[in-house]
Amino acid sequence: MARAAALASSVEAVLGSRSNANRVFEILELLAGREEEEEEVLCAARTCSRLFGALLERRELFVGPLPAEEASLAGSYSAEDKYKIWMRHRYNDCVGSLAELMGHGAFQVKELSLCTLMKFVELEARYPLIKVEWKGSLTFPRELLKVVVDGLLPINEDASLLISRFQEYMEYDDIRYFVIKAVTENIGQVMQKTKERPLPFYQQNVFALISPINMPNKECDMVKFMVKQDNWEELKVSKLQAHRQAFEKMWLSFLKHKLPTGLYKKVLVILHDSILPYMNEPTLMIDFLTVAYGIGGAISLLALNGLFILIHQHNLEYPDFYKKLYSLLDPSIYHVKYRARFFHLADLFLSSSHLPAYLVAAFIKRLSRLALTAPPEALLMVIPFICNLFRRHPACRVLVHRPNGPEGMSEDPYIMEEEKPSESRALESSLWEIQLFDKEVKKKAIDVPLEFEQVRGLFGKKNDIFAEHFTLD
Q1: Burial of 283 per CB tally in 10 Å (0-12, 13-18, 19+)
Q2: Contact between 268 and 306 (Cβ < 8 Å)
Q3: Confidence class for position 364, pLDDT limits 50, 70, 90
Q4: Residue 86 and residue 21 in contact, taking contact as beta carbons nearer than 8 Å
Q5: Half-sphere exposure (Cβ direction) of 158: Cα atoms closer than 13 Å
Q6: d(CA 388, CA 385)
Q7: How far apart are the first and last CA of the chain?
Q8: Phi, psi dihedral angles at 129 (to 5 degrees)
Q9: Which of 353 and 464 is assigned the larger pLDDT?
Q10: Phi and psi at residue 248, in whole multiples of 5°?
C-alpha cells in the first residue's frame, strides 16, 4: 500500500507541474526492475498506464520523427518541444519495459502489460504521434502494434494463454489487418535465422494467433474499426481485397517453412474452412500440400483432401492426384486408428462416374489384395466399399464375371508393386481374393458403414464428410 501511495504521488506531481518531470524515473525504475515483487511490478504498470495515458490525451508527447535525446537538449528547440521530446523518450522507455514484461514469469504481469500496451495503441490511434502530412492520411500506430505482436510470439515458450487473451482485440478490422501484416514481418525476421529448422514453440504460437482469425466475407461486413480516419473509404485497411492479400501473404509466409509434424495436421484440418475461402489465389497452397503429402499417414490423407478441394472448387489441374492416393494403399490402412476417415475420403475421391475403369479397377484390386491380411473388423468396411465401386463403375464388373480368370496369386496378371494404376494390369485380373462378391453385387445398394458417428460435413455443410470436430488420433 505504501508503494502504491508513493507511485500515485509521483503521478500527481508529474501531471501537476513540469518541474516535477524527473519523478517519472521513480515509476520507470520499478517497472523495469524484473527482480521486484510481482505486486510492485503490477502497481508500476498500472501507474504508467495512468500517467502516459493522460500525457497522450493532453498532447504532451512530441509528435513526429523523434530527435535523439541529447541532440534535442543541445539543439535550438523551444522549451516546450524539449519537454515533449524528453517525455516522449520516457514513454518509449515505458513501452520497452512493458514489451519485456510480456515475457515475465507471472501471467498476471504478462496480461496487464499486454492490456496496457493495447490501451496505448488505442490512444495513439486517437492522438497520433505521427505527424499528419495531409488531411486524412493514415495515422494508425503500426509500430506500437508490432511491438505487441512480437511480444505474443516468443521463440522458446508457449504463449497460447496470452494469445487467447489478445483475441478480443482481433474483432477490430483495423487491428486484425495490421496484426496480419505484423505477423508476416515477424515470421520473415525469425524464420530466416533458423536455416529451415523448425521452431516448435514459436510456430505453435504463430498458429495459435492466426488460426482463429475471422475474416470478413464482404466489404460491407467491415464496420468495426478502433479508429476512424477522415478518408477511411480510400484507405487499404477498409478494402476487403487488401485484407485478403495480407491474409494470403501471411499464411504463405508461415507455411513455406518446415513445420513440426503435429502442426501439419492442425493446419490441414482448418484449411478448407478457415484459410482457402479467404485467399485470392487458393492454388498457391499446392506447394504446402505437396510437402504435407510426403509426411505420410493421416497427414498425407488430409493433404490429398486439400488437393481434392483445389481440383474441384478452384480448377486446379493435378494429374498425379490418384497416383498419390493409390500409393497410400498399404497394409497400414486396415490397422491404423484413422482407417474410418481414410475410407470416408477415398469414397469421396472415387465417387465420380467419369473415372476411367482401369483406375477404379486398380483400387479395387489393391484393396482386395491387402484385405487378405486385414483384421476381420476391417473387412466390414472394405467389402461394402468395393461393392459400391462396382455399382458406380459397371465396367469393372469384369473382375467378378471372368470365368477363366486367375484363381490365385501365381496366375494373377495384376502387378501389386506397380506405382502407376494405369500400368498395374488390374482390368486383366479377377477378384479371386474375395469370394463373397457374386452375392454382394446383386444385393440392393446399401450405405457404406464408414463411421460410427453421424458425419456432418467436409466444408461444414450438411451431408458432407467432415464432422464439426475433425480429429485424427
Answers
A1: middle
A2: yes
A3: very high
A4: yes
A5: 2
A6: 5
A7: 52
A8: -95, 0
A9: 353
A10: -65, -45
**DSSP for 368-387?**
HHHHTTS-HHHHHHHHHHHH
Half-sphere exposure of 443 (CA within 13 A, CB side): 12
Contact present, 178 and 150 (Cβ < 8 Å):
no
Q: How many residues does the chain have?
A: 473
DSSP state of 355: S
pLDDT at 130 over 80: yes
Over the Cα atoms of the chain, what is R_g? Answer: 31
Q: What is the pLDDT of residues 70-100, one digit of tens each?
A: 887 777 889 999 999 999 999 999 999 999 9
Cβ pair 421, 362 in contact under 8 A: yes
**Predicted TM-score of the model (pTM):** 0.83
Q: How confident is the model at residue 465 (pLDDT cuts 50, 70, 90)?
A: very low
What is the 3-class SS of 159-192, one letter each residue? CHHHHHHHHHHHHCHHHHHHHHHHHHHHHHHHHC
Tens digits of per-residue pLDDT, 224-233? 887 776 555 5
Cα-Cα-Cα-Cα torsion 111, 53, 99, 65, nearest 10 degrees, comes to 160
Contact 291, 252 (CB under 8 A): no
Q: Using an 8 Å Cβ cutoff, are 208 and 162 in contact?
A: no
Angle (deg, nearest 10), helices 2-16 and 24-32: 140
Residue with cell 535465422: 193
Report CA 168 to chain centroid distance, whole Å.
17
Q: Nearest CA to 299 among 252, 266, 344, 327?
A: 266
Considering only CA atoms, which of 35, 31, 32 is closest in space to residue 50?
Answer: 31
Average pLDDT of the segment spanning 336-363 = 90
CA distance linking residue 436 with residue 384, whole number of Å: 11
Residue with cell 504460437: 205
* Cell, residue 384: 461394402
Residue 316's H or E segment, with its range, is none
Residue 69, H or E segment? helix 69-74
